[in-house]
Specification:
Blueprint lengths: L19 E3 L2 E3 L1 H10 L3 E5 L19 H13 L1 E5 L4 H7 L7 E4 L4 E4 L5 E2 L4 H18 L6 E4 L4 E4 L5 H18 L4 E5 L2 E5 L5 H10 L5 E6 L5 H9 L3 E5 L8 E3 L2 H12 L2
Parallel strand pairs: 3-4, 3-12, 4-5, 12-13, 13-14
Antiparallel strand pairs: 1-2, 5-6, 6-7, 8-9, 9-11, 10-11
Helix pairs in contact: 2-8, 4-5, 6-7
Protein name: Trehalose 6-phosphate phosphatase
Pathway: Glycan biosynthesis; trehalose biosynthesis
Family: Belongs to the trehalose phosphatase family.
Length: 275
Amino acid sequence: MDSRHLGQKLPQNHARAPGRVFGGHAVREDLLDLLQKHNARLLLLFDYDGTLVPIAPTPDKARPDQELVRLLKALGRRYRVAIVSGRRLEEIQAFLPLSEIWGWAGCHGAEIKVAGKELWRYSLSSEEKALKDKFHLYLAQLLAGRKGFLLEDKGFVLALHYRLADKEEAKIVKEEARRAAETFLPRWQIRPGKKVLEFLPPGINKGAAVARLLAEAQGFLPAYFGDDAGDAPALRLVEEKAGIGVAVGSQAPPASFKLAGPEAVRQLLLRLCQP
């Protein structure tokens, strides 16, 4: 992998370099040039919610439009493409039923599938599963009768959504949920996201997921696109590996490059697909 151009520290104003207006959105010409330079040796890694599609009121509403599906299909024919999501693997694959996508990481990396390889899954011990089920029951009872909350059991991860809940009530529920998690699952991680609180097994994060994917893509330059705190480990890892980190949106963790939101990502990828 030729990463000499990335081995030096980027200037502080690098992430604010101007882009050309394309389709009403600024396209980062410096980022586009860097991605195009690596062509067939490029590994594009995308978070889904908030990066490829806008955040929706509830998870089931954040479905891709056909333009995005066609775009990812075209990208997958030209580059290696992987989706790294907090969603269950089967759910994200149902949203994006594309054989052209080379790699998948679901539940923040608790499930990983690479083309031509067997599925890898985190193994919950019987004790962990029992405690997780008890915690799930506690959360369900905590939310009973409360409006605007959604509790997701992803098998390996529990997610407490509160986007539609009253702000003050959400604050109370989050504090109660955190305290309960420390009792039921003291070794598990508590990860805040955009109007969601997630509970994950130790060692499961998108940085570890990307490391597993990179182990299957020797010689490729990784470029990771992510929008919230859950993407921070992946962005850090990719940049430590002399890859390209792209922060998406106003709440994204720091990275060498920044895009305004999913539409800016789409315009960049449309340009990347052009001959």
